[in-house]
Amino acid sequence: MRTILAVTLMNLRSIPSRLGTSLVIVVGIAGVVAVLIALLSMSKGFEKTLKGTGADGRAIVINAGSTSELASYLQPDVVSLLRTLPAVKRDVEGKPLASAELLVITELRKGEGPRAASVNVALRGVEPMGLKMRPEVKLMQGRVFEPGLHEVIAGRSATEQFEGIKIGNKLKFRGSEWTVVGIFDSDRDAHESELWTDADTARNAFGRPGASSVLAQLESPAAFKAFKDSITTDPRFQVDVSTERDYFTSQSESLTSAINILTNVISIIMAFGALFGALNTMYSAVATRSVEIATLRAIGFSGAPVVASVLAEAVLLALAGGMIGAAISYTLFNGMSVSTLGGSFTQIAFSFMVTPDLVERGLTWAVLLGLIGGLLPAIRAARLPVVEALRAA
Q: Does residue 62 come out as left (phi exceeding 0), alpha (psi in the -120 to 50 range) or beta?
């Protein structure tokens, strides 16, 4: 080990004389790691936004076979029956804590100037009980909408991503104007990308007397099984039921899977480029140090210290590149707010998240590329003919 350490340190001291070629590894792998972490941080942020929506103690009911609230429609009689189920919690007045909600698509502008594009934004009709059931939703500015009036409150993320969402502004959709009267915060969950209005007002405006979903407060998370059983064993219901948190988690699966596939494809393509750069650099390093390596072999050093020194150089250069790439991703992307289409074909705003596990994954890629890129040159160095190398000198 002392021999390996001595040869490795001697090898590393020569890096400044080969700085230009050494930077090929550093820059190449920095690019791979930066792209890898940036794309994964987008997936992580989107997933966190949806997984952070809702609570295990609330259940959401949608029409059977529907993949989202937008594709669901529950008839008024079904909604009335769902409210009466015994597993639904009651308030102090004995009223069921359930909200029949309508989710529809509206259009707003995203971006500024001539490049601004129309995007789908969710308008959620919420009953008064729906506000009462969501303690995480807090009004930041303004007031709550008045029943019967074309008034909306907007999530904080929606105000950051879409044009015209300010208190007092009027938004035009469904042939009429809707006044923004409040801004709410819900801890950066999916609801912050929505506009909320009175459920009955939305039903009248959009001509849909039923509901997209029913949100029910349960006595406890443990009561979900009883609630679900009471629905699935009743032939009057043709619905799907899940906890609110599970429902929103499922909405993130398709996009996060697509992002992960895209990330792996792009990262592998870039990794091949960085790998060839590492191979070229390390072969050049071996060629430059051929006399030095031959001298070490001639005075009795075995091939193992030579292999270890070349691999150590490749790994350290790759690790340096990985750390630079991780720093670039964190600086440029961590906390950056964007929006994209979610499972309901409406915009969901979220923030990129560069987390420690993503940095660890990026550095692991860097070390692996360094090992692979240094292995063949290291073997070549160990097999370098001593006599020929000394004669060439």
A: beta
Q: Phi and psi (nearest 5°) for 25?
A: -65, -50
What Cα–Cα distance (Å) separates residue 258 from each residue in 43, 160, 176? 9, 26, 38
The pLDDT value recorded for residue 260 is 83
Percent of the chain with pLDDT over 90: 52
Q: CB-hemisphere CA count at 13 Å for 389? A: 20
Which residue intervals of 207-336 are DSSP H helices? 224-232, 244-288, 290-298, 303-333
Backbone angles phi, psi at 319, to 5 degrees: -65, -40
Lookup: tokens for 80: 């009335």
Burial (0-12, 13-18, 19+ Cβ within 10 Å), 145: buried
Contacts of 90 (CB under 8 A, 6+ apart): 96, 97
Q: What does the pLDDT look like over 12-59, one tens digit per residue?
A: 676 676 677 778 888 889 999 999 999 999 989 988 888 889 898 999
What is the chain's alpha carbon radius of gyration, rounded to the nearest angstrom?
30
What does the buried/exposed string (b/e) look like for 63-87 if buried means 16 or more CB atoms within 10 Å of the residue's CB? beebebbbebbbeeebbebbbebeb
pLDDT tens for 65-74 read 998 999 999 9
- Model confidence pTM above 0.85: no
Is 253 within 8 Å of 51 (Cβ atoms)? no
How far, in Å, CA of 393 to CA of 387, rounded? 10
> Per the structure block, which two tokens stand in for 221?
């998370």
- pLDDT-derived band at 8 (thresholds 50, 70, 90) equals low
* 8 Å CB contact between 103 and 122: yes
**Cβ(366)–Cβ(29) under 8 Å?**
yes
DSSP letters of 83-135?
HT-TTB-B-TTS-B-EEEEEEEEEEEEESSGGG-EEEEEEEEEE-HHHHHT-T
Q: Could you tell me if 383 and 304 are in contact, meaning their C-beta atoms sit under 8 angstroms apart?
A: no
